[in-house]
Amino acid sequence: MMSLSQNNTLPIPGDESNAQSLSKQTTCCALLTGAGRSAIAVIALWGERAEACVTHFFRCNRSRAMDVGQVRYGVWAGGSADTASPADSSSTERATTAGESIVVVPTAPQRYELHCHGGEAAIARILDDLSSIGVRRVAPHPLDGVPSAGRLPVKDPVDQRLIDEACAVLSQSTTVKTAAIALDQVRGALCQWRQRSIQLLGDDARRAAEIAAQTQHIAAAGRIGHRLTRPFDVVLAGPPNVGKSSLINAMVGYDRSIIMDFAGTTRDVLDAETVFDGWPLRLRDTAGLHRSDDTIEKQGIDRAMEAIATADLVALVTEPGLQWDHTLLEALERINASVPTVRVINKSDLSPVESADAPADALATVATTGAGIGNLLQTVVQMLIDDLPPLGRPVPINPRQWDWVTEIARLGEQPEQLIACLRRGELV
């Protein structure tokens, strides 16, 4: 158990300056929280002189020893502490110098978390103060911030790489559902499947086809797994003035797109991000698809077609009684025939949707009142994650892992190459 002295200071040798003494040690810090403004930021500090660095700047509001796992509130005195002599730091009186209010948590011997205000100025002050006494700032390791109890302990370097990559994805996941898939891999779902497969093949090479079949299901999950850190792209496409922009506004719950009662209002691709049922979506509002001689409109239509070409799902939007141009429909199919599509009849309050020309599976919506919006979002999500594996299953969570697993699935008739690929953990 580590503890600080009763007055929360650790004397620095008097024959060297603080900066000289600390700069000779391997002591590092890293900002664990993401970029941008936030309520609270967390800075990790570790190394041979981490305790000395904390006591150099931190003035605790209590005089009791600070042990691992305990939380202490106080003031980060900053630059004013630099000028204090070693004798001054041994005083048992509380510091009255104005500073940044922070919380300090020792997480292990010579390892701390500093919790401060999330503003850039507060973060920069602490990092600059630490740098001034020789602490080296580094990028956080993917495992930082993940409790050790939640990680699979491994010795195999291939498994360690899989765990590290899963931790990196976990740190960037923005919803509980995406984080849960990444956390399963941090806990070893993919690693344990790899080790079991190697053992089975070592015992009986004839089981290669069986393992390859299992791997096909794992590879299928990679379509979702490699997208955990970025939202699915859902493109709304259709003729002008059918309410695509109004649908976007209704789906995200605020006015993201400008809406007008004439064609051509949307001339570019506008994005709006939202989360539905735990899944991040990027909704893309596009220019109306129609024949036009207007140069600017034609550019907007070209960009709409480009967005459709890279979409994860396309919502084809129309309104009652409006016929689609068959030439445009054929063009859409040629661009991205493999991408799922959902038909939407917006403004369905204008006339019954059950008309002869309406597709049987079309969804009825009224963007201005919100009618049918929940059903539309639910359908979109179901179509995007229709092959989602149950929790706890192995899932490749980045393109490298996806390519590797896909290659294993292809090697079902070649047991020697299959086991070599499993052991290697990546493509040749």
TrEMBL record:
Alphabetic keyword roster: Hydrolase
The name this protein goes by in its record: tRNA modification GTPase MnmE
PANTHER family, per the entry: TRNA MODIFICATION GTPASE GTPBP3, TRNA MODIFICATION GTPASE GTPBP3, MITOCHONDRIAL
Ranges of residues in domain G: 233-347
EC number(s) reported in the record: 3.6.-.-
Top EC class of this enzyme: hydrolase
Biased composition annotated in UniProt, kind: Polar residues: 1-10
Gene from which this protein is expressed: mnmE_2
Spans annotated as Disordered: 1-20
Gene3D superfamilies named among the record's database cross-references: P-loop containing nucleotide triphosphate hydrolases (3.40.50.300), Probable tRNA modification gtpase trme, domain 1 (3.30.1360.120), tRNA modification GTPase MnmE domain 2 (1.20.120.430)
GO molecular function, one term: hydrolase activity
